[in-house]
Amino acid sequence: MRKELTNYKTIMVILALALFSFTFLGTEYMFDNMMAYVTDSPGVVMAQSYILGISVIGFLLFPLIQRHIPKTMKYLVAFVGVILEIIGVFVIQQHMSYTTILISGCMVFLLLGIVGSAVHYMAACVLNKSRNLAKIVGISYAVGILFQFINNNCIKNDMMESIVLSVSMTILVILMAILEKDSFDKTENIEMEKEKNTYVLKNPMVAGIMLIIIVALMTCVFAALDNAVTLVHATGSVDIGQWPRLLLALSGLMAGLLFDIRERRYMNMMMYCVTLLSTACVVIIEFGGAFLLGLTVFYLSAGFFVVFFTTGFIDLSYHMNVPELWAGLGRAVNNASAVITGALSVSLLTTQNDMMIIIIALALFALISVMIYIYTNQFEVHIAESEEDIKTKNQEDAEKFANFSAAYSLTKREQEVMEMLLSSDDSVQEIADALFISRAALYRHIGSLNEKTETKSRIGLIQFYYGWNEK
User: Fold this and answer.
1) Is the pTM of this model over 0.85?
2) Tens of pLDDT along 312-330?
3) Which residues have CB under 8 Å from 158's CB, separation 6+?
Protein backbone atom coordinates (compact mmCIF):
# COMPACT_ATOMS: atom_id res chain seq x y z
CA MET A 1 0.00 0.00 0.00
CA ARG A 2 2.75 2.45 0.96
CA LYS A 3 4.49 1.89 -2.37
CA GLU A 4 1.35 2.79 -4.33
CA LEU A 5 0.50 5.84 -2.21
CA THR A 6 4.01 7.26 -2.70
CA ASN A 7 4.05 6.53 -6.43
CA TYR A 8 4.61 9.60 -8.61
CA LYS A 9 1.41 9.14 -10.62
CA THR A 10 -0.66 8.48 -7.51
CA ILE A 11 0.62 11.68 -5.93
CA MET A 12 -0.33 13.59 -9.10
CA VAL A 13 -3.84 12.11 -8.92
CA ILE A 14 -4.20 13.03 -5.24
CA LEU A 15 -3.08 16.60 -5.94
CA ALA A 16 -5.38 16.92 -8.96
CA LEU A 17 -8.45 15.65 -7.07
CA ALA A 18 -7.55 17.81 -4.04
CA LEU A 19 -7.12 20.94 -6.16
CA PHE A 20 -10.42 20.30 -7.89
CA SER A 21 -12.24 19.99 -4.54
CA PHE A 22 -10.53 23.14 -3.27
CA THR A 23 -11.18 25.14 -6.45
CA PHE A 24 -14.81 24.07 -6.77
CA LEU A 25 -15.69 24.66 -3.10
CA GLY A 26 -13.58 27.82 -2.89
CA THR A 27 -15.16 29.36 -5.98
CA GLU A 28 -18.64 28.44 -4.72
CA TYR A 29 -17.81 30.08 -1.36
CA MET A 30 -16.59 33.26 -3.06
CA PHE A 31 -19.60 33.31 -5.39
CA ASP A 32 -21.99 33.17 -2.42
CA ASN A 33 -20.12 35.94 -0.61
CA MET A 34 -20.16 38.22 -3.66
CA MET A 35 -23.83 37.50 -4.30
CA ALA A 36 -24.57 38.57 -0.73
CA TYR A 37 -23.52 42.12 -1.71
CA VAL A 38 -26.22 42.42 -4.36
CA THR A 39 -29.15 40.30 -3.18
CA ASP A 40 -30.83 38.85 -0.08
CA SER A 41 -30.36 35.36 1.39
CA PRO A 42 -33.05 33.66 -0.75
CA GLY A 43 -31.46 35.28 -3.81
CA VAL A 44 -28.05 33.84 -2.87
CA VAL A 45 -29.55 30.36 -2.40
CA MET A 46 -31.30 30.56 -5.78
CA ALA A 47 -28.14 31.78 -7.55
CA GLN A 48 -26.16 28.96 -5.96
CA SER A 49 -28.71 26.49 -7.34
CA TYR A 50 -28.15 27.91 -10.84
CA ILE A 51 -24.38 27.46 -10.78
CA LEU A 52 -24.57 23.95 -9.32
CA GLY A 53 -27.06 23.01 -12.03
CA ILE A 54 -24.78 24.44 -14.72
CA SER A 55 -21.83 22.44 -13.31
CA VAL A 56 -23.83 19.25 -13.92
CA ILE A 57 -24.05 20.16 -17.61
CA GLY A 58 -20.27 20.56 -17.60
CA PHE A 59 -19.79 17.08 -16.11
CA LEU A 60 -22.00 15.62 -18.84
CA LEU A 61 -20.24 17.52 -21.64
CA PHE A 62 -16.79 16.05 -20.98
CA PRO A 63 -17.41 12.65 -22.66
CA LEU A 64 -18.35 14.46 -25.88
CA ILE A 65 -15.23 16.61 -25.69
CA GLN A 66 -13.04 13.60 -24.92
CA ARG A 67 -14.32 11.55 -27.83
CA HIS A 68 -14.83 14.18 -30.53
CA ILE A 69 -12.14 16.84 -30.10
CA PRO A 70 -8.78 15.86 -31.67
CA LYS A 71 -5.95 15.33 -29.20
CA THR A 72 -3.94 18.15 -30.79
CA MET A 73 -6.79 20.57 -30.05
CA LYS A 74 -7.33 19.56 -26.43
CA TYR A 75 -4.40 21.59 -25.12
CA LEU A 76 -5.71 24.68 -26.90
CA VAL A 77 -9.19 24.06 -25.49
CA ALA A 78 -7.72 23.63 -21.99
CA PHE A 79 -5.72 26.87 -22.33
CA VAL A 80 -8.77 28.86 -23.50
CA GLY A 81 -10.85 27.26 -20.75
CA VAL A 82 -8.51 28.25 -17.91
CA ILE A 83 -8.29 31.83 -19.27
CA LEU A 84 -12.09 32.07 -19.30
CA GLU A 85 -12.25 30.63 -15.76
CA ILE A 86 -9.76 33.21 -14.47
CA ILE A 87 -11.63 36.05 -16.16
CA GLY A 88 -14.89 34.78 -14.71
CA VAL A 89 -13.46 34.59 -11.19
CA PHE A 90 -12.23 38.19 -11.30
CA VAL A 91 -15.57 39.42 -12.68
CA ILE A 92 -17.35 37.65 -9.81
CA GLN A 93 -14.94 39.25 -7.34
CA GLN A 94 -15.90 42.74 -8.57
CA HIS A 95 -19.58 42.05 -7.65
CA MET A 96 -20.78 44.77 -10.03
CA SER A 97 -24.34 43.47 -10.31
CA TYR A 98 -26.47 40.38 -9.79
CA THR A 99 -26.54 39.70 -13.53
CA THR A 100 -22.77 39.93 -14.10
CA ILE A 101 -22.03 37.74 -11.09
CA LEU A 102 -24.57 35.15 -12.20
CA ILE A 103 -23.45 35.04 -15.83
CA SER A 104 -19.78 34.81 -14.84
CA GLY A 105 -20.59 32.17 -12.23
CA CYS A 106 -22.46 30.04 -14.75
CA MET A 107 -19.53 30.22 -17.17
CA VAL A 108 -16.98 29.36 -14.47
CA PHE A 109 -18.98 26.42 -13.09
CA LEU A 110 -19.73 25.04 -16.54
CA LEU A 111 -15.97 24.90 -17.11
CA LEU A 112 -15.34 23.54 -13.60
CA GLY A 113 -17.83 20.76 -14.33
CA ILE A 114 -15.90 19.80 -17.46
CA VAL A 115 -12.60 19.94 -15.58
CA GLY A 116 -14.02 17.91 -12.68
CA SER A 117 -15.25 15.16 -14.98
CA ALA A 118 -11.86 15.08 -16.74
CA VAL A 119 -9.95 14.87 -13.45
CA HIS A 120 -12.05 11.96 -12.20
CA TYR A 121 -11.68 10.13 -15.50
CA MET A 122 -7.91 10.55 -15.52
CA ALA A 123 -7.83 9.38 -11.91
CA ALA A 124 -9.73 6.24 -12.94
CA CYS A 125 -7.23 5.62 -15.75
CA VAL A 126 -4.10 6.12 -13.66
CA LEU A 127 -5.28 4.23 -10.57
CA ASN A 128 -6.02 1.10 -12.61
CA LYS A 129 -8.62 -0.52 -10.36
CA SER A 130 -6.44 0.08 -7.31
CA ARG A 131 -7.19 -1.80 -4.10
CA ASN A 132 -6.43 1.47 -2.32
CA LEU A 133 -8.89 3.52 -4.38
CA ALA A 134 -10.97 4.70 -1.41
CA LYS A 135 -7.83 5.64 0.56
CA ILE A 136 -6.54 7.73 -2.35
CA VAL A 137 -9.93 9.43 -2.76
CA GLY A 138 -10.14 10.03 1.00
CA ILE A 139 -6.65 11.52 1.17
CA SER A 140 -7.30 13.81 -1.80
CA TYR A 141 -10.59 15.00 -0.29
CA ALA A 142 -8.92 15.67 3.07
CA VAL A 143 -6.10 17.61 1.41
CA GLY A 144 -8.61 19.69 -0.57
CA ILE A 145 -10.57 20.51 2.59
CA LEU A 146 -7.36 21.47 4.40
CA PHE A 147 -6.46 23.79 1.51
CA GLN A 148 -9.86 25.42 1.91
CA PHE A 149 -9.47 25.69 5.70
CA ILE A 150 -6.10 27.42 5.32
CA ASN A 151 -7.43 29.68 2.57
CA ASN A 152 -10.50 30.75 4.57
CA ASN A 153 -8.45 31.51 7.67
CA CYS A 154 -5.44 33.17 6.06
CA ILE A 155 -6.88 35.02 3.04
CA LYS A 156 -9.12 37.90 4.07
CA ASN A 157 -8.89 40.01 0.91
CA ASP A 158 -11.30 39.38 -2.00
CA MET A 159 -8.67 40.18 -4.63
CA MET A 160 -6.13 37.84 -3.04
CA GLU A 161 -8.75 35.12 -2.85
CA SER A 162 -9.39 35.51 -6.59
CA ILE A 163 -5.65 35.24 -7.27
CA VAL A 164 -5.37 32.07 -5.16
CA LEU A 165 -8.30 30.46 -6.98
CA SER A 166 -6.90 31.47 -10.38
CA VAL A 167 -3.49 30.00 -9.54
CA SER A 168 -5.18 26.80 -8.32
CA MET A 169 -7.10 26.49 -11.58
CA THR A 170 -3.92 26.96 -13.58
CA ILE A 171 -2.00 24.36 -11.57
CA LEU A 172 -4.94 21.96 -11.89
CA VAL A 173 -4.89 22.23 -15.70
CA ILE A 174 -1.11 21.68 -15.70
CA LEU A 175 -1.52 18.55 -13.55
CA MET A 176 -4.17 17.30 -15.97
CA ALA A 177 -1.76 17.81 -18.86
CA ILE A 178 0.88 15.78 -16.98
CA LEU A 179 -1.60 12.98 -16.30
CA GLU A 180 -2.71 13.08 -19.94
CA LYS A 181 0.88 12.68 -21.08
CA ASP A 182 1.75 9.92 -18.63
CA SER A 183 -1.32 7.84 -19.43
CA PHE A 184 -1.14 6.03 -22.76
CA ASP A 185 -4.57 5.34 -24.25
CA LYS A 186 -7.02 5.81 -21.41
CA THR A 187 -9.95 4.03 -23.01
CA GLU A 188 -7.77 0.99 -23.60
CA ASN A 189 -6.41 1.27 -20.08
CA ILE A 190 -9.87 1.12 -18.51
CA GLU A 191 -11.10 -1.57 -20.90
CA MET A 192 -8.20 -3.84 -19.97
CA GLU A 193 -8.98 -3.37 -16.28
CA LYS A 194 -12.28 -5.16 -16.78
CA GLU A 195 -10.31 -8.40 -17.00
CA LYS A 196 -8.58 -7.68 -13.67
CA ASN A 197 -11.60 -7.06 -11.43
CA THR A 198 -11.90 -9.17 -8.30
CA TYR A 199 -15.65 -9.10 -8.90
CA VAL A 200 -18.02 -8.89 -11.85
CA LEU A 201 -21.34 -7.12 -12.27
CA LYS A 202 -24.38 -9.11 -13.35
CA ASN A 203 -25.74 -6.05 -15.16
CA PRO A 204 -23.48 -2.95 -15.10
CA MET A 205 -26.24 -0.62 -16.32
CA VAL A 206 -28.63 -1.74 -13.59
CA ALA A 207 -25.85 -1.24 -11.04
CA GLY A 208 -25.18 2.23 -12.47
CA ILE A 209 -28.84 3.26 -12.28
CA MET A 210 -29.10 1.94 -8.72
CA LEU A 211 -25.99 3.88 -7.66
CA ILE A 212 -27.38 7.07 -9.21
CA ILE A 213 -30.63 6.63 -7.28
CA ILE A 214 -28.77 5.81 -4.04
CA VAL A 215 -26.59 8.92 -4.28
CA ALA A 216 -29.61 11.08 -5.17
CA LEU A 217 -31.61 9.77 -2.19
CA MET A 218 -28.67 10.10 0.18
CA THR A 219 -28.15 13.67 -1.04
CA CYS A 220 -31.73 14.39 0.08
CA VAL A 221 -30.87 13.18 3.59
CA PHE A 222 -27.57 15.05 3.80
CA ALA A 223 -29.06 18.21 2.26
CA ALA A 224 -31.80 18.13 4.90
CA LEU A 225 -29.23 17.66 7.67
CA ASP A 226 -27.12 20.47 6.22
CA ASN A 227 -30.13 22.79 6.12
CA ALA A 228 -31.17 21.82 9.65
CA VAL A 229 -27.70 22.80 10.89
CA THR A 230 -27.69 25.97 8.78
CA LEU A 231 -31.09 27.10 10.08
CA VAL A 232 -29.88 26.83 13.67
CA HIS A 233 -26.70 28.68 12.77
CA ALA A 234 -28.71 31.42 11.02
CA THR A 235 -30.56 32.24 14.24
CA GLY A 236 -27.27 33.43 15.73
CA SER A 237 -27.56 31.16 18.76
CA VAL A 238 -24.57 29.07 17.65
CA ASP A 239 -21.49 30.18 15.72
CA ILE A 240 -20.24 27.25 13.68
CA GLY A 241 -17.03 28.93 12.51
CA GLN A 242 -14.35 27.15 10.48
CA TRP A 243 -13.40 24.28 12.80
CA PRO A 244 -15.92 21.77 11.32
CA ARG A 245 -13.78 21.77 8.15
CA LEU A 246 -11.24 19.77 10.12
CA LEU A 247 -13.95 17.19 10.87
CA LEU A 248 -14.62 16.93 7.14
CA ALA A 249 -10.95 16.24 6.47
CA LEU A 250 -10.82 13.68 9.26
CA SER A 251 -13.97 11.93 8.06
CA GLY A 252 -12.56 11.70 4.52
CA LEU A 253 -9.45 9.96 5.83
CA MET A 254 -11.51 7.63 8.05
CA ALA A 255 -13.82 6.74 5.17
CA GLY A 256 -10.89 5.90 2.89
CA LEU A 257 -9.35 3.58 5.47
CA LEU A 258 -12.61 1.82 6.34
CA PHE A 259 -14.07 1.52 2.84
CA ASP A 260 -11.00 -0.29 1.44
CA ILE A 261 -11.30 -3.15 3.94
CA ARG A 262 -11.57 -6.47 2.06
CA GLU A 263 -11.45 -4.69 -1.29
CA ARG A 264 -14.47 -2.48 -0.49
CA ARG A 265 -16.85 -5.38 0.13
CA TYR A 266 -18.34 -3.63 3.16
CA MET A 267 -18.38 -0.09 1.75
CA ASN A 268 -22.10 -0.11 0.92
CA MET A 269 -23.05 -1.42 4.37
CA MET A 270 -20.84 1.15 6.10
CA MET A 271 -22.42 3.98 4.11
CA TYR A 272 -25.85 2.57 4.91
CA CYS A 273 -25.08 2.80 8.65
CA VAL A 274 -23.77 6.36 8.26
CA THR A 275 -26.99 7.31 6.44
CA LEU A 276 -29.07 5.74 9.21
CA LEU A 277 -27.23 7.83 11.78
CA SER A 278 -27.66 11.00 9.68
CA THR A 279 -31.38 10.38 9.24
CA ALA A 280 -31.76 10.04 12.99
CA CYS A 281 -29.87 13.31 13.49
CA VAL A 282 -32.28 15.21 11.21
CA VAL A 283 -35.10 14.16 13.49
CA ILE A 284 -33.09 14.90 16.67
CA ILE A 285 -32.20 18.45 15.57
CA GLU A 286 -35.75 19.16 14.41
CA PHE A 287 -37.09 18.12 17.82
CA GLY A 288 -34.66 20.43 19.61
CA GLY A 289 -32.06 17.81 20.47
CA ALA A 290 -28.35 18.32 21.02
CA PHE A 291 -27.24 20.65 18.21
CA LEU A 292 -23.54 19.92 18.73
CA LEU A 293 -24.20 16.20 18.24
CA GLY A 294 -26.07 16.87 15.00
CA LEU A 295 -23.33 19.19 13.79
CA THR A 296 -20.60 16.63 14.48
CA VAL A 297 -22.53 13.83 12.82
CA PHE A 298 -23.25 16.00 9.79
CA TYR A 299 -19.62 16.86 9.08
CA LEU A 300 -18.36 13.37 9.80
CA SER A 301 -21.03 11.76 7.60
CA ALA A 302 -20.53 14.35 4.82
CA GLY A 303 -16.90 13.26 4.39
CA PHE A 304 -17.96 9.61 4.24
CA PHE A 305 -20.60 10.46 1.64
CA VAL A 306 -18.19 12.28 -0.69
CA VAL A 307 -15.65 9.44 -0.54
CA PHE A 308 -18.47 6.93 -1.09
CA PHE A 309 -19.91 8.42 -4.26
CA THR A 310 -16.51 9.38 -5.70
CA THR A 311 -15.08 5.90 -5.13
CA GLY A 312 -18.28 4.18 -6.20
CA PHE A 313 -18.53 5.87 -9.58
CA ILE A 314 -14.80 5.60 -10.37
CA ASP A 315 -15.04 1.89 -9.55
CA LEU A 316 -18.16 1.54 -11.67
CA SER A 317 -16.52 3.24 -14.66
CA TYR A 318 -14.29 0.18 -15.18
CA HIS A 319 -17.38 -1.83 -16.09
CA MET A 320 -19.09 0.70 -18.38
CA ASN A 321 -18.87 1.27 -22.13
CA VAL A 322 -18.47 5.04 -21.68
CA PRO A 323 -16.09 5.34 -18.69
CA GLU A 324 -15.55 9.06 -19.42
CA LEU A 325 -19.14 9.67 -18.34
CA TRP A 326 -19.30 7.45 -15.29
CA ALA A 327 -16.00 8.25 -13.55
CA GLY A 328 -17.09 11.76 -12.50
CA LEU A 329 -20.84 11.19 -12.40
CA GLY A 330 -20.95 11.03 -8.59
CA ARG A 331 -20.33 14.75 -8.19
CA ALA A 332 -22.80 15.53 -10.99
CA VAL A 333 -25.58 13.48 -9.37
CA ASN A 334 -24.81 15.02 -5.99
CA ASN A 335 -24.95 18.58 -7.38
CA ALA A 336 -28.14 17.95 -9.35
CA SER A 337 -29.88 16.37 -6.37
CA ALA A 338 -28.75 19.20 -4.08
CA VAL A 339 -30.29 21.72 -6.47
CA ILE A 340 -33.60 19.85 -6.62
CA THR A 341 -33.95 19.04 -2.93
CA GLY A 342 -32.27 22.05 -1.29
CA ALA A 343 -35.19 24.48 -1.40
CA LEU A 344 -37.72 21.71 -0.68
CA SER A 345 -35.90 20.59 2.45
CA VAL A 346 -35.66 24.18 3.76
CA SER A 347 -39.39 24.68 3.20
CA LEU A 348 -40.16 21.43 4.98
CA LEU A 349 -37.90 22.18 7.96
CA THR A 350 -39.35 25.67 8.41
CA THR A 351 -42.97 24.43 8.43
CA GLN A 352 -42.44 22.88 11.88
CA ASN A 353 -44.56 19.92 10.74
CA ASP A 354 -42.71 17.35 12.81
CA MET A 355 -44.83 14.37 11.78
CA MET A 356 -44.33 15.09 8.08
CA ILE A 357 -40.56 15.37 8.60
CA ILE A 358 -40.48 12.00 10.36
CA ILE A 359 -42.55 10.33 7.63
CA ILE A 360 -40.41 11.70 4.79
CA ALA A 361 -37.15 10.84 6.60
CA LEU A 362 -38.29 7.26 7.17
CA ALA A 363 -39.56 6.95 3.60
CA LEU A 364 -36.20 8.14 2.22
CA PHE A 365 -34.34 5.70 4.44
CA ALA A 366 -36.62 2.83 3.37
CA LEU A 367 -35.99 3.63 -0.31
CA ILE A 368 -32.22 3.81 0.31
CA SER A 369 -32.39 0.41 2.01
CA VAL A 370 -34.12 -1.18 -0.99
CA MET A 371 -31.77 0.41 -3.53
CA ILE A 372 -28.61 -0.58 -1.64
CA TYR A 373 -29.92 -4.16 -1.44
CA ILE A 374 -30.52 -4.27 -5.21
CA TYR A 375 -27.19 -2.55 -5.94
CA THR A 376 -25.18 -4.87 -3.69
CA ASN A 377 -26.76 -7.94 -5.29
CA GLN A 378 -25.37 -6.88 -8.69
CA PHE A 379 -21.87 -7.85 -7.55
CA GLU A 380 -20.44 -11.32 -7.94
CA VAL A 381 -17.06 -12.00 -6.31
CA HIS A 382 -14.65 -14.16 -8.28
CA ILE A 383 -13.87 -17.48 -6.63
CA ALA A 384 -10.15 -18.00 -6.09
CA GLU A 385 -8.64 -20.70 -8.31
CA SER A 386 -6.71 -23.62 -6.87
CA GLU A 387 -2.98 -24.01 -7.57
CA GLU A 388 -3.72 -26.96 -9.88
CA ASP A 389 -6.25 -24.88 -11.83
CA ILE A 390 -3.75 -22.03 -12.16
CA LYS A 391 -1.03 -24.42 -13.36
CA THR A 392 -3.36 -25.96 -15.94
CA LYS A 393 -4.51 -22.54 -17.10
CA ASN A 394 -0.91 -21.36 -17.50
CA GLN A 395 -0.09 -24.39 -19.64
CA GLU A 396 -3.15 -23.76 -21.79
CA ASP A 397 -2.25 -20.08 -22.15
CA ALA A 398 1.31 -20.95 -23.21
CA GLU A 399 0.05 -23.44 -25.77
CA LYS A 400 -2.49 -20.96 -27.14
CA PHE A 401 0.16 -18.26 -27.45
CA ALA A 402 2.53 -20.59 -29.31
CA ASN A 403 -0.24 -21.62 -31.72
CA PHE A 404 -1.29 -17.99 -32.20
CA SER A 405 2.29 -16.95 -32.97
CA ALA A 406 2.64 -19.73 -35.52
CA ALA A 407 -0.72 -19.00 -37.13
CA TYR A 408 0.15 -15.34 -37.74
CA SER A 409 3.89 -15.80 -38.38
CA LEU A 410 4.98 -13.57 -35.50
CA THR A 411 8.66 -12.81 -35.28
CA LYS A 412 10.54 -13.34 -32.01
CA ARG A 413 10.42 -9.60 -31.24
CA GLU A 414 6.71 -9.44 -32.11
CA GLN A 415 6.08 -12.31 -29.72
CA GLU A 416 7.92 -10.40 -26.97
CA VAL A 417 5.84 -7.29 -27.68
CA MET A 418 2.63 -9.31 -27.75
CA GLU A 419 3.43 -10.93 -24.40
CA MET A 420 4.09 -7.54 -22.84
CA LEU A 421 0.83 -6.12 -24.19
CA LEU A 422 -1.11 -9.05 -22.76
CA SER A 423 0.53 -9.08 -19.34
CA SER A 424 1.57 -5.50 -18.55
CA ASP A 425 -0.41 -2.50 -17.36
CA ASP A 426 2.47 -0.13 -18.04
CA SER A 427 2.41 2.78 -20.48
CA VAL A 428 3.77 2.50 -24.00
CA GLN A 429 6.99 4.23 -22.95
CA GLU A 430 7.47 1.89 -19.98
CA ILE A 431 6.89 -1.18 -22.17
CA ALA A 432 9.40 0.16 -24.70
CA ASP A 433 11.95 0.68 -21.92
CA ALA A 434 11.39 -2.85 -20.60
CA LEU A 435 12.01 -4.24 -24.10
CA PHE A 436 15.03 -1.94 -24.60
CA ILE A 437 13.57 -0.42 -27.76
CA SER A 438 12.39 3.06 -28.67
CA ARG A 439 8.77 4.16 -28.41
CA ALA A 440 8.65 4.54 -32.20
CA ALA A 441 9.98 0.99 -32.67
CA LEU A 442 7.35 -0.35 -30.29
CA TYR A 443 4.62 1.39 -32.28
CA ARG A 444 6.00 -0.17 -35.48
CA HIS A 445 5.81 -3.64 -33.94
CA ILE A 446 2.26 -3.00 -32.72
CA GLY A 447 1.37 -1.75 -36.20
CA SER A 448 2.80 -4.93 -37.72
CA LEU A 449 0.78 -7.05 -35.28
CA ASN A 450 -2.35 -5.08 -36.20
CA GLU A 451 -1.67 -5.65 -39.88
CA LYS A 452 -1.13 -9.39 -39.48
CA THR A 453 -4.25 -9.85 -37.36
CA GLU A 454 -6.32 -7.29 -39.32
CA THR A 455 -7.03 -5.27 -36.19
CA LYS A 456 -6.91 -1.48 -35.87
CA SER A 457 -5.77 -0.68 -32.34
CA ARG A 458 -3.94 -1.99 -29.33
CA ILE A 459 -7.15 -2.87 -27.50
CA GLY A 460 -8.51 -4.43 -30.67
CA LEU A 461 -5.41 -6.62 -30.91
CA ILE A 462 -5.77 -7.77 -27.30
CA GLN A 463 -9.48 -8.47 -27.67
CA PHE A 464 -8.79 -10.36 -30.90
CA TYR A 465 -6.24 -12.55 -29.12
CA TYR A 466 -8.55 -13.41 -26.24
CA GLY A 467 -11.35 -14.21 -28.67
CA TRP A 468 -9.12 -16.27 -31.01
CA ASN A 469 -9.55 -20.00 -31.18
CA GLU A 470 -7.36 -22.33 -33.22
CA LYS A 471 -9.35 -23.91 -36.04
Assistant:
1) no
2) 999 999 888 889 999 999 9
3) 30, 33, 34, 93
